[in-house]
Write a structure and sequence with these properties.
Shape: elongated
Structural class: mainly alpha
CATH architecture of the largest domain: Up-down Bundle
Strand order of the largest sheet: 1-3-2
Radius of gyration: 25 Å
CATH topology of the largest domain: Four Helix Bundle (Hemerythrin (Met), subunit A)
Oligomer: single chain
Distance between the termini: 81 Å
CATH superfamily of the largest domain: GntR ligand-binding domain-like
Mean pLDDT: 85
Number of helices: 11
Number of strands: 3
């Protein structure tokens, strides 16, 4: 290898592009280290580093300090927080600020097919006779509303927040807060939300969603306050 090729960022970029064609761009395929790449390509490490900077700017690789360089676009950074312990106050704070707006957008954009799916999900939720089924179909209904809003970034935020349902403590808390009266009220509220979306009334849809979420919030807050008093007595 001629000395001039040892410090040639353009050549390094070309050879790295060739290498990437054979690596799945899944975002989790780790590349060799800069030192290893420099040795295998016969090009200076500085040139390799510069070429990687170009590839990162193009979204063909991504890098994390201490972890290395990976082929493909950077994964959704929200998924990095999947392991966070569910916190009732934080989850409801996000829901109250996000989902009324999603309901409003759904009222403006939902297709007849999306509205039909919402109504079907309500029936499935009402037919559920156990906690796991109720969580499953409730989540599916709220996600269908979020999907009908037609904004991929809002949907990504919704999915990140909705992962709280995976947490056993959160699921147990939700189920303890349910009783026959609360379930009947929740069903009515779900129907009010979907009826407003079907009527393409964004103001009513947003208000109905906010009313529903405040009921959920108040029910759980009441429960946790009573349980705290019982524990203290």
């Amino acid at each position: 290898m001629p000395a001039r090729d040892r410090d040639n960022s353009s050549l390094a970029l070309e050879r790295l592009r060739q290498m990437l064609r054979d690596i799945p761009a899944t975002g989790d395929s780790r590349l060799p280290t800069e030192r290893q790449l420099a040795e295998s390509l016969g090009i200076s490490r500085r040139s390799v580093r510069r070429a990687l900077e170009v590839l990162e700017a193009e979204g063909l690789v991504w890098r994390r300090q201490g972890a290395g360089t990976f082929a493909g676009p950077r994964p959704d950074t929200l998924t990095e927080h999947e392991g966070l312990e569910a916190n009732f106050s934080e989850v409801m704070e996000v829901r109250l600020r996000l989902e009324p707006q999603l309901a409003q957008l759904a009222a403006l954009r939902a297709s007849p097919g999306a509205i039909a799916r919402m109504r079907d999900l309500i029936i499935r939720l009402e037919d559920s006779d156990d906690a796991d089924g109720r969580e499953l179909w409730d989540s599916a209904l709220h996600r269908e509303i979020a999907r009908a809003a037609g904004n991929r970034f809002f949907l990504m935020i919704f999915d990140s927040m909705d992962r709280a349902r995976h947490d056993e403590a959160w699921r147990a808390l939700r189920e303890r807060a349910r009783n026959r009266a609360n379930l009947a009220q929740t069903m009515r509220q779900h129907r009010d939300i979907v009826d407003a979306i079907a009527a393409h009334d964004p103001v009513r849809a947003g208000a109905a969603m906010r009313t529903h979420l405040m009921s959920v919030h108040d029910g759980i807050l009441r429960l946790t306050s009573l349980e705290a008093l019982e524990d203290a007595s």
